[in-house]
Amino acid sequence: MVSKCIFYENEAEYGGAFFSYENAEPVVSNCLFYNNHAYYGGAVALYEYCNGVFINNTIADNSANYGGAFYFYYLSNPEIINSILWDNEATIGDQVYSSTSAVSHPGFYYCDIEGGQAGFGGSQINGDYLFNVEDNPLFSGDEVNPCSLLNNSSPCWNAGTPDTSALFIAYNQYLPETCLCDSTRIADGCIDIGAYEYPLILGINKHILSSGKVFSTYPNPFHENLTISFELENAALVYIEIYNVVGESVDVVSNTNMKAGKHTLNRSIPSLPEGIYFCRMQVGGEVFTQKIVKQ
Q: Residue 147 and residue 252: Cα distance in Å, rounded?
């Protein structure tokens, strides 16, 4: 099983990032494939009798001669679930190519696929094609979490397998508890399509501001008093908020314009129950998050 991995800027003849061969049944979950290239299958190639499960992956900006995202050869019948196939390019089959030699029967369920089946090339794919969308996923452009969802206006938000569906019941065992950026994998009651779960407030992202100044919280774990320390290169509006593990705001620490220089904020939160929380600071267009523990 391959889970919570990022594959980028790889190149091969078959499967720029991932190649499965002869009777293999890989399980690939919660992974990001981008900027990979191959002659067959820019991101993934399955060759001869390969089945398996690809669930909650994001496959974007890959390229190939045949199948920008996926290439299927000779009776390869995997199931692709809750995945984004977007901005992939190929000479034939921008998103998917299936060889005309012994037709493959992959199934696509609850995916966001650019162009839909019009983005498929080669022989007709006779597997299921159910509950999929063909809308721009609205990637955030975040360099720390590439191809994450911009906001809850994304057609991928809460659009994955419902928890009552047979697919969810059968394959939920393959999903980690957190997404690629360590956000809770199922937020707002339903899983998102792709490798990231919106919002990203639960992710432990970079802790250094663009100016190179450190954002830190201490002590960690803390009991009642939490100290937040950071340094601003320029004057800015500083918004700091604390969230619980289900994404609910429990305390606003700062929503204030601050001068350039070092800052230390002391916060007393005696009524906060013990547990895991996340401290999120937004300065201009930058967002930084750290996990904190209340004891």
A: 28
